[in-house]
Structures are given as structure tokens and as C-alpha cells.
């Protein structure tokens, strides 16, 4: 009985921790590399928190469009906080270990916020479609109750989609010598490759989540803008066409800076194994760090009401 138990314990192995990396091949200058990363994290948190405060404290911004923008800003804050601790720990202090369970928790939140962001961008495209195609019914279609239900549905969808991920990884047998991740945070595709077991179920699960969330969302966003363009082309005045399309510019930019890196990360993890590790790392950082940095900049530049509300907050802060 005892030899059998010993065999079982030895045959199934899960590491106590994984080894994270920062920028491969540039470990000696991680201290310098941490400066732009710290700056980007600061901009992301400050910008998105300013948007949240601006919408909350400005009654004129209590409209569906700005409620959805608040959802996007809150999601970007969550996405930033998901990667900030481990990334700065690696770059600042050279602390490269992350516990197995902590890695799974980070992975869950990281991917959940990504799915939430995709869903929020879809909801914002629906908002633009309703505002342009049927402006007279805009306020009656997108009521506060409808927006709350959309928000609950978005969070529920992300939670249900990502909940099985950590448990599917915990059932795997890992190799004692394979604990080195490709990033300074935990990706599902990266973690499952460390296993010494059949990962077919994990691969199919990951593919299902990507196609059923980001894949479906991107198609519906494309459909929304096809209908928006059709509506805009039906407007008689060229000035009205330009004005209608101008209300979509910020959202289109937000969609592009989110989905292009997502596609890049998915393609590299599946077909880019021959590429240098630094390419994997940089694409992942672009995917997770750049959108939360650029979104508040885009909306503060393109949206005059948001810009004025943010400047008003900063002036009040300075005077106070």
C-alpha cells in the first residue's frame, strides 16, 4: 500500500511556483526598462480614474454613452491592476517567482477583464448604432435599467467563460523542470505549455473561449458598423454624415487598439513558436498595457465633454 501511494505522489507533480521573465535578453537593464512601464501604468490608472470621477461628478455626462465609457475605464483599471504587481516586481526587484495558485488567480482575472473589455466595446458599438439610426428613441431604448442589465450580463459572461480555466489546469501533471513562463504574468496558453500531459482539452477550451467571446464580439461590432455606415450614407447632408461618423471615431480607435494586439497574441501563441522570446513578450505587453493607456487619451482628446470635465476635476484638485 505504501509503495503505491509513493508512486502516485511522484507521478503527479504540480510546481510550487512558476518563474516569470521580464524582457528576455535584457535582464541587466530591467531597472531602466521599468521607467517607461511605471509611467504607462501611472498614465493608465490616472487617466481611467479621472474618467470615472468625471462621469460620476458631472450630471451632464449621465448618459448611456458615458456610462459605457465608465465601464471601459473601470475594466482598464482592472486589467492594469492584474498585471502591475508581478510586472513591476520582476522589473524593479528581480522577484521572478509566482506561486502556482496565485498564477491561476492572476490568469483568471487577466483573461476575465479582457473578455469584459471586448464585451464593453460591443455594447458601445450598439450604443452608437442606436444613437445614429434612431436618435429619437435613444433615451428610451438605453435606459438606466437596460444599461445595468447589460453590465451584469457582461460580467456574468466573462465569469462563466473563464471559471473552468484554472480547474482544467490544476488537473494537469507538470514537468519538474518546466516552470519558466514567457511573460511577467500568467497567460492560459503559456501555463498549459508547461504541462507534461495531454493538453488537448485545454487547447480546445482556450479556442472555444476566444471564438465565443472575442471572435463573436468582433463580428457583431463589424456588423454594427456596417449598419451604421448604411444609415449614415442615407443622410441627405454631407455635414450630417461627417458629424455622425465623428461620434464613432473614438470607439473605432479603441476597438483597433484592443483587437489588433489580441489577434497578434493569439496568432503568435499558436503559430509563432519559432519566433524569439522577446517578440512574444513585447506583443503581450502591447496587448495588456497599451489599450488602458491609450483609451483615456483618445476619449479626452476626441470628446470635448469628457475633456472639459477632466480639466475641471484637475483645477478643483489644484485649488483644493
Automatic annotation (TrEMBL):
Residues 47-299 form the G-protein coupled receptors family 1 profile domain. It is found in: Cell membrane; Membrane. Keywords: Cell membrane, G-protein coupled receptor, Membrane, Olfaction, Receptor, Sensory transduction, Transducer, Transmembrane, Transmembrane helix. GO terms for biological process: cellular response to lipid. The keyword Transmembrane helix applies. It is a multi-pass membrane protein. It comes from the Eukaryota. InterPro entries: GPCR_Rhodpsn, GPCR_Rhodpsn_7TM, Olfact_rcpt, OR51/52/56-like. The chain crosses the membrane at residues 32-55, 67-93, 105-126, 146-164, 203-228, 249-272, 278-301. PROSITE patterns: G_PROTEIN_RECEP_F1_1 (PS00237), G_PROTEIN_RECEP_F1_2 (PS50262). GO terms for cellular component: plasma membrane. The keyword Membrane applies. GO terms for molecular function: G protein-coupled receptor activity; olfactory receptor activity. PANTHER family: OLFACTORY RECEPTOR, OLFACTORY RECEPTOR 56B1-RELATED. Belongs to the G-protein coupled receptor 1 family. Putative odorant or sperm cell receptor. This is Olfactory receptor. The lineage of its organism: Eukaryota, Metazoa, Chordata, Craniata, Vertebrata.
